[in-house]
Write a structure and sequence with these properties.
The structure is a homodimer of 410-residue chains. Chain A has four domains: 165 residues, Molybdenum Cofactor Biosythetic Enzyme, Chain A (3-Layer(aba) Sandwich), CATH 3.40.980; 44 residues, Molybdopterin biosynthesis moea protein, domain 2; 88 residues, Molybdopterin biosynthesis moea protein, domain 3 (Molybdopterin biosynthesis moeA protein, domain 3, Beta Complex), CATH 2.170.190.11; 77 residues, Beta-clip (Beta Barrel), CATH 2.40.340. In chain A, 19% of the residues lie in helices and 28% in strands. The first copy, chain A, is built from eight helices and 27 strands. In chain A, a hairpin with a 2-residue loop joins strand 24 and strand 25. In chain A, helix 1 crosses helix 6 and helix 3 runs parallel beside helix 6. Chain A is elongated and about 100 Å long.
Chain lengths: 410, 410
């Protein structure tokens, strides 16, 4: 167990992605689908528009009848009917005829253009004066937006409000989505106390249960919080029995080099370790393996480290299990310039917390001053993690990649 | 009702913000607080760290006892005990003494520095050799992260995973949050059919119910979907009776200049109109007023227009009702460069859909090709709305502001 070679973050991420199960799918009502991930391609059930229809309120007529029409020399047409949306005009528009038409209404047979109502005057005796030529471009063509049978939303897409609207417009009342991964979370540590209780000297409040539950919820997992255990091997065994059938066990704490790091002992003793230690800072002691069939990701106990390892590694596992086709947070980077120095670590990739400024010349990233992995406050003030290659310092003005956090913390 | 002067979007937004009610607050468990908005400032209930403690696993001792220590000339100290996290060493570290210490454990009285375990050798007879000088910087000072009584999260902050973790670290098991605004949604139109049913010629699927419910959920509202009504004034009256006691009624459709625009007729006939028509495209026919005490925001029926007016105006109302201190979407802009031409409208501010590219030189926005407000597909392909001032065309390479969509569609 001594000083194993630390894995590169990208290799650790690859192992988590490969190890993620296929969760199967379920069908949910569209109104319950926000944030879920599409499990199949979604094809349109209709043409949209279903028929040639009017882009505006006005008059449908023959373009040829309005050539050269203007305020001083309007085209005078006979008004033969009206076509509100959803109630098509049944007849045919002949030469010299017009139909009052409303936005979205079917353009009657015979008509091939629209004059907006603002460019018209209705006259007595069922006549209308049109003050400009009818435009064919104001007829929206059948299927110009959606064609029946064509796929417009692809498997692996996370459903946001625009995608949900589009699914509705295609005629889907429900959609197939990936089942939520079930994740049990176990925080450990003798010195850790639930918020809301009194603190004894030397104790700290457990922030990891709250932050990791929220990160899991934001990632689309069904989260189960196990009762916290101290640095006691027997209690850890008992707690794990309560995890039941989940897709991933997340632990926080107990994975370092210390004598009381029980999660490490358990996984090395009774499980199969895939890796221990990742060449990243914060987050170095991350541990991954299986207890029987159960994948176990051991996050460090430090509040910032546990969040960063969640974003880099747990999200890779969860996103893969959900079949998401967009990149997981660690790979979803933007180019920026350093606004402050960023100091690299000798053998580890740095993922320091940064604040972003959006300027005319692009994105500028400033390192937050306290990068201690115990300082959760800086996480709540950060917009992004910067990516600092091992062994490199980055000077102000130099290029630096950043991982924006907002979408991932939700 | 003819051709009223259209309001500037910013003025319309200001009216919605001013009209938003104060919803009061409720207390929720931290684990249920994701996405809620803090209703009060939150002060820490503890110092963090609560005591001076060790930043690493190693040995706590007196710095003076390790001056000049190195591999070839270690400092030899007497090991007098150990201090695991949460179980402080009870005694005092005297000259020539060291205590084995673990990350997060209280630094014993008398000790003022730490030597990492990697730079040590334990020897027989209760002695330890330290191969480098102890560092005072590896003692984390009491309250260096959080000071008891100090506010670290402010009223109006939307709670993401980092803020929730911080609230837990401050000792809060539950937090005061703004009550969710209750929003009733009514979609209208004779030609509109629920997804999942067969379409008749001239009919279209209702995408607005789905997209607006999702936008409301993403905004943190408690959404109530009313049964849809056709272009029939009596049915509209009946539907509104079902809205009951809500904070906002959203309608879609029925606000244009047409003869069958019933929402407009209702609000002008029985309500008090604050504005009708906003100088924006899409979204021009937006209508706002009150029916009795009930605020009513009439969105256009076009799928894209209704989403854009939701983001610009409904979000201003909802964000203000929630007391959010971050800017609503319309004001949350980034500077970019145009990657394609953006054509302005004569008297309206354009909010066309765009795709963003993050390059070394900053953000580039490309207009999506079909900007018809009926084309929902483009909304699902867009990253942002661009802001094109009225009467101006923007050429490739020119500066343009964009409103990123991701966080608002969720």
């Amino acid at each position: 167990m001594d000083a194993p070679r630390a894995l590169a973050p990208l290799d650790a991420l690859g192992i988590l992605q490969q190890d993620a199960p296929n969760l199967g799918s379920e069908r949910v009502e569209l109104v319950d689908a926000l944030g879920r991930v599409l499990a199949d391609d979604l094809a349109s059930l209709c043409d949209h528009p279903g028929v040639d229809n009017s882009a505006l309120d006005g008059y449908a007529c023959r373009v040829a009848d309005t050539a050269g029409a203007r305020e001083a020399a309007p085209a005078r047409l006979r008004l033969v009917g009206e076509a509100p949306a959803g109630r098509p005009y049944a007849g045919r528009v002949g030469p010299g005829e017009a139909v009052r038409i409303f936005t979205g209404a079917a353009v009657p047979d015979g008509a091939d253009g629209i004059v907006p109502v603002e460019a018209s005057r209705e006259r007595e005796g069922g006549r209308v004066e049109l003050l400009q030529p009818a435009r064919a471009a104001d007829v929206r063509r059948r299927a110009q937006d959606l064609a029946d049978g064509q796929v417009y939303l692809h498997r692996g897409r996370r459903l946001d409000a625009a995608a949900i609207g589009l699914a509705g417009g295609m005629g889907h009342a429900s959609v197939p989505v990936a089942r939520r991964p079930r994740v049990a979370l176990l925080t450990t540590g003798d010195e850790v106390v639930d918020p809301g209780r009194p603190l004894q000297p030397g104790q700290v409040y457990d922030s990891n249960a709250a932050s990791l539950m929220a990160l899991g919820q934001a990632a689309g997992a069904a989260m189960l919080l196990l009762p916290r255990v101290g640095d006691d091997a027997a209690a850890l065994d008992r707690a794990l029995e309560q995890a039941g059938s989940v897709d991933l066990l997340l632990t926080s704490g107990g994975v370092s080099m210390g004598r009381y790091d029980r999660v490490r002992d358990l996984l090395f003793g009774q499980g199969a370790v895939r890796f221990w230690k990742v060449a990243m800072k914060p987050g170095g002691p991350a541990l991954y393996g299986r207890l029987g069939e159960l994948p176990v990701l051991g996050l460090p106990g430090n509040p910032v480290s546990s969040m960063v390892v969640f974003l880099v590694l747990a999200r890779a596992f969860l996103d893969a299990a959900l079949g998401r086709t967009d990149p997981p947070p660690y790979l979803d980077r933007r180019p920026a310039r350093a606004g402050t120095p960023f100091r690299g670590a000798a053998l580890k990739e740095g993922l320091p917390r940064a604040r972003l400024t959006y300027g005319e010349q692009g994105l500028v990233a400033a390192a937050l001053t306290n990068q201690s992995s115990g300082v959760l406050r800086s996480m709540s003030e950060a917009d992004a993690l910067a990516v600092v290659p091992a062994g490199r310092d980055i000077a102000p003005g130099e290029a630096i990649d950043v991982i924006p956090l907002a979408g991932h913390l939700r």
